[in-house]
Specification:
The chain is α+β, with helices and mostly antiparallel strands and 112 residues long. The chain is 29% helix and 29% strand. It has helices spanning 3-16, 27-31, 94-106, and strands at 36-42, 51-60, 63-66, 72-75, 78-85. The strands form two sheets. The protein has a three-stranded antiparallel β-sheet with strand order 1-2-5, covered by helices on one side. Strand 1 and strand 2 (51-60) form a beta hairpin.
């Protein structure tokens, strides 16, 4: 299953179960941007592809802050844009695994 179909199916399921009030991330938004989406799968749940249990979307965002000299500064740090772990898989360290893998893959640490 390609990424677009997988994301559409997953978000549709979340909306159907009323976990979300509206769409969070569409496949088209990810494919049309420079954002990266990390997907956590449980390979024991599905013989063919595994079951998606969480995802994390990251990308750069323009942010503005005032420094110690009271000057406005623009930065573009790596930001977590969307994050979700299926409710049946929460409180088991899955979000931590996903976040830790993303940091390793992106070559960053929190607060960097």
């Amino acid at each position: 299953m390609n990424l677009r179909k997988l994301l559409i199916a997953w978000v549709t399921d979340l909306l159907r179960r009323r976990v979300l009030n509206g769409a969070i991330t569409s496949a088209d938004q990810i494919l049309a941007s420079d954002h990266r989406c990390y997907i956590l799968k449980d390979l024991s749940q599905d013989k063919l592809n595994g079951a998606v249990i969480g995802f994390l979307k990251v990308g750069s965002k323009k942010l503005f802050f005032v420094n110690l000299d009271s000057q406005q500064v623009e930065v573009s740090p790596l930001c977590v844009l969307d994050f979700y772990v299926h409710e049946s898989c929460q409180r088991r360290g899955n979000g931590y695994k996903l976040f830790k893998f993303m940091m390793q893959r992106e070559g960053t640490t929190p607060g960097q």
